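A reminder before we start the practical. When you read a complex entry, don't treat the lines as separate problems. The point of joint prediction is that each chain is placed relative to the others, so the output describes one connected object in space. Small molecules and nucleic acid strands, if listed, are placed in the same frame. In the example below there are two entries. Take a minute to note the order of the lines before looking further.
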Amino acid sequence: DSGVTQTPKHLITATGQRVTLRCSPRSGDLSVYWYQQSLDQGLQFLIQYYNGEERAKGNILERFSAQQFPDLHSELNLSSLELGDSALYFCASSDGLAGINEQFFGPGTRLTVL
Amino acid sequence: DAKTTQPPSMDCAEGRAANLPCNHSTISGNEYVYWYRQIHSQGPQYIIHGLKNNETNEMASLIITEDRKSSTLILPHATLRDTAVYYCIAAIYNQGGKLIFGQGTELSVKP
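Here is the predicted structure of the whole assembly.
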């Protein structure tokens, strides 16, 4: 158990819909990262937040957005869903911008878009 | 971030050492080598990282060549539970930023 929790574990929805994935980082971790893992693209970094502020952006689509709240939990919002958005979405946390940079990953949310 | 190259798959007998190579010929001076693994579809798990000295922890050893262009992750006594995809990543220490995952090496530990 990494200490990172993600909800829901599974999500099935239809094209065009909007969903929200939630992540609670390990206690004390200030950084939250979101990754997408699909069969054809592998594990891809989407976005990082540190203490409520966006710090790094990867290959995140404009239809996707994220935020980190004052209690440090984070949400990833996916809108206008397409079939190709079906993937595993992982959240990871680390103790911040300094330190050993070890990221602790949650169990993931499996999104299926029908 | 420097690109890393790993063999797509490897086999290892249970109880033997598993040596997983990684090539990172364009690594820069401030980039560390990190290893993560992913068992089935679980979240990736940190294994070890290093800059230029060899490193060892309770999970594995990391050997980095003197020119830092390649490294080897060693699992000293592989078990069936070590069957996973192993990712070698070059990333800047303390940047706290993204990890760029390649295709990794799928290690199969066989009885």
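Discuss with your neighbour: Chain A has a mean pLDDT of 92. What might explain this?
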